[in-house]
# Entry
Amino acid sequence: MRRSPERTARAERPRRVRPAPAVVHRAVRVTAAACAGFYTFRYGLDRPVSATYALFAAIALGVLARVEGSARTRARTILWTLPAAWALVCLGTVLAVHSWAAALGMVGVGFAVSYGSVGGPRMVGLANGLQLLYILPCFPPYSPDTLPQRLLGVTAGLLLLAAAELLLWPEPAPPDYRGRLARAALALAELADLAADACDGRSAAPGAVTAAADRARARLDELRFSRVPVMERPAGAGAVDRALTHCAAALRYAGPQLLRILRLARPYPGAARLTAVTAQALRAAAAGLPRTGPVPDNGVLERELAAFDAARAAEPRPGRTGRTGHTDRAGPALGTAALDSAEGARFVVRAVRVGRRAPLPPDETPADQRPGPFWYAYDPAPLLRWHRFRANLTPRSVAFRNALRTAGALGAARLLAGGLDLSHGFWVLLATLTLMRTSAADTRMTLRPALVGTALGAAATAAVLLAVGEHPLVYALALPPVMLIAFTAGPALGQAWGQGLFTLVVALVFTQLAPASWRLAEARVVNVATGAAIGLLAGLCAWPRGGAQDLRRRAAALLEDSADALRETVAVLTGTGRPGGALRRARTSALLTEAMYAQYRCERHDPAGDGPSWQAAVLAGQHAVRGAEPLLARIPPGTAAPHRGGARVLVGHADEVAAAFRRQAAALRAREPAGAAHPAVARARAALVAELDGGPAPGSDGRVSLHAVDVAVWLAGLLDDLQQIHEPG
# Structure
């Protein structure tokens, strides 16, 4: 059937960009709150200062800030910012006495507010809005006598915005990270059921395993922070957010172990029972993740783990028929995979219990191996926040470096605006704040549409001012619809529309506060251009490549820290060394690398680059940590090898794996081709596989021999992870 010319033309016509209903609803709420406060104070009470602060307070928290959650959560967050808003307005009012004082205050406030984002996504969303609440009062005129009016306006603006959140199109609670975790746990439970069937000698339907594995990988991929909106990430310093992050890492660890069982696909009734209980534990964790669900318990899984470990130690050596009736040629490796997946599920359930604030048993981690994997569950919230702030107080931290960049740029913008005595100089800082990105490339990309939009908006503003003249009533009637269109079109149509329409909005506001001419539009263009130039220079001078600049070094450092952690773990398990804090350092390094990778994914970079798979590097570090934790919890120190010769062999394997990690780290630092370390990795893995095929040493105690197999399988899995880094991504 041929298509008509009219239908073809309609099909080829570009789609109109329609703003999402949530964007429109938010624009209505902000417009209603801002205009209600502004008109009440400006025309009802004749308090222009309070009117100005009421309007900009609503814009600061409603437009510049990102306050997410349900309507009640958003309103509560806005009300919680009131004390901080009062403090910032007071500080800005006092320091406006001199440009140097205001600039120094801007540096301090800029750093503190930006660095506060390490406390969680809520502070990330509030940062720009809080910055504006200092920027506005820190400019002339220096009028400390108007401080009560300023505070009154800010309070009214935020109260009106909170009321609008509750009354005007209140938004339902968005899907949270707990739902993603629950879906991933259910997908792994399905995979565990298939693994249990395989161990019990029952084959799955053709394609069932492949489909379940694909679903599990997709659900696990949804847990990556680079796939999760910033405000939905459990990135806070408290025990609950840490537990949810830990739950995600444990799920990512359990997934490959279940896939390993399915790849071996050998009859092993004992592993079948353990894997079936693992599936039950994962389903219980999924049901307990919602705040209203039943809190899961680990009792059954822990008893099954202990029983399986004891039975496995009592079984004959590979190649003979055991009491369970199966030929145990692949028994050690399959048993280790079953144990590891069950340990991963046990950690998932424990993390869910911490996330639900359920009672926990005392920390069983030996004193010389602390902190244990769930150390955060036993510390008070203020101490946890201090740990987070202290861990990021380093130039290696993305949050620390971004805070320095923000503080320097805003301080320079305030000093320049004061030195040049720019009219409406706070626009300079506002432009710097909203246009500066984490890399110079991203800042340049925002510069052109911002300047074009501002210039067009200024031209429209000048035309309106010349045509209307001094008729405040016209501007008062035009403000609400123009504001509504500006706050709707900006998110939907892009930077140019947002800047152009906002230029018209501020002109309509200031013409109602004092007589204005077309020069107001000229000042707006000059100030935005100045602020954008400062933001660009800050990006060029301070880490111009953003996350991409240091991700290579950060990933290399993670691999080196992981090498130290795995080497130390094997030394502790074989009795050839003592804990020295390497595992703790690797945990911190993994967190810093995850933050750097998340920022890198948010920036523009060349997709055609032939660099390594950064995600694989992050996962290799995570698996080194998450694999060491259950081994240290299950295997008593010094019992992983039956004799000194076995300990030397196992330590030698750990040295080879650690050397492979360090070679890959060196290749990353030197920007060598991705396959530079591949042959060494392959040789190390081949040696480990040959050792595993040999089975436990003749005449040795079965338990300690199988513990050695557990450690060797973990090391081989780490080499598998390391090989994935060679694939571009």
Summary: The CA atoms of residues 660 and 681 lie 6 Å apart. The chain is about 70% helix and 0% strand. Residues 426-544 form one domain.
